[in-house]
Amino acid sequence: MYKILLLLLASSSLLACNMIEKTKKYPYVVTDSAPENYPCEIYRGSLHYGKTKGVPVPRGKFIDYGWGRGSTHYGSRAPKELPHQLDIAWLSYRENKFYGGSFELPKAKMEALFDKGFAHTRIENTKDTYSKIIVGVAPGGIVSVWLMGAGHQVQIGVFKGEETEIDWAAFNPSGIKDRDLYVNGRLNRHVSADELAKPVPFGLWETYALRYLWKPVVVGKDVNFVIQTLTEFFSGEREMFVREETKEFKYASKTIPKKAEIWWQSKDHKQYKTKVFFNEKEMYRLFEQLARDTENDKIEVIFKHENKVKVSVWLKTKEQEVLLENAETKTFKSNI
């Protein structure tokens, strides 16, 4: 009987631990996003967690901050479960079309990212983690979800909604009754005529989500060591390396970089900052050319400091090394 009681107690404890594990809670808020020059407006949206709870996605605003850039946030930062589902409907102004859908989110992956966190940007030997979930919508029914924290942003899913119809009076109850007049009026106020004349680049935001196996490399006779790096990606992601992380960069599956900032110390112990702006067409053409097998072909993005001012950027694989002819670089003194 004693052994049976012990077994029951152990089982109860294990069940209790499993219940606690299933209901991990994290402080975060939710914000919205849409590409610059391709504005959208969310009609309704909710991130669901638990059995009946959810956090609303900001709605009723003309949004075009830039892909992955958030603005207004909803909800408190009180700890809550991470969501397992996103329900959303929105208007894509450039198409004058409504889209909507319900999407299952990778909750376990999100929990792992929140738990892992990243090095605190200022306090040594301290870990920080994500604090926002950004929900982005784009033409063609594209939906993206990012986790955002200080210096870090990771895309955890890209989905495709379906074209739908929403009653115009319900969407714009106290506004202009003529849908075309309303949509065109807002577009003309917020988007330039030159941009409106361009076709909508369907497929672009899915392309931004493509991942390759690559790492940065910083070299140069004047470089003593790298202090810190910050990389922004066309996908809306961000990545920061600080302190020990900069001693040896490792290959990782990443999207293609849009901008890089490198803080480094010279041999004479002065501090510099190098900014690199990548050309989108050149980067996607060369990455596709050099890494035909995105899972295995490794690429080094090499920042060659030829002196304290001049920097060239190269893409290198086992077989070849290619100069980025259209990358713009600027180096200047900077106390971090």
Quick take:
This protein has 336 residues and is α+β, with helices and mostly antiparallel strands. The protein has helices at residues 2-22, 107-116, 168-171, 179-190, 193-196, 204-208, 280-290, and strands spanning 26-27, 29-33, 40-49, 53-56, 73-74, 79-80, 85-92, 97-104, 118-119, 127-128, 132-138, 142-149, 152-160, 162-164, 212-219, 223-233, 238-242, 252-254, 257-266, 271-277, 298-305, 311-316, 321-323, 328-333.
Give me the number of helical elements: 7
Supply Rg. 23 Å
Q: What's the CATH architecture of the largest domain?
A: Sandwich
Q: List segments where confidence is low: pLDDT < 50 over at least 5 consecutive residues.
A: 1-12, 14-20
Q: Write down the domain tally.
A: 2
**How many individual β-strands?**
24
Assign the structural class, choosing from mainly alpha, mainly beta, alpha/beta, alpha+beta, or little secondary structure. alpha+beta
User: What share of the residues does DSSP label as strand, in percent?
Assistant: 35-45%
CATH class of the largest domain: Mainly Beta
Assign an overall shape: globular
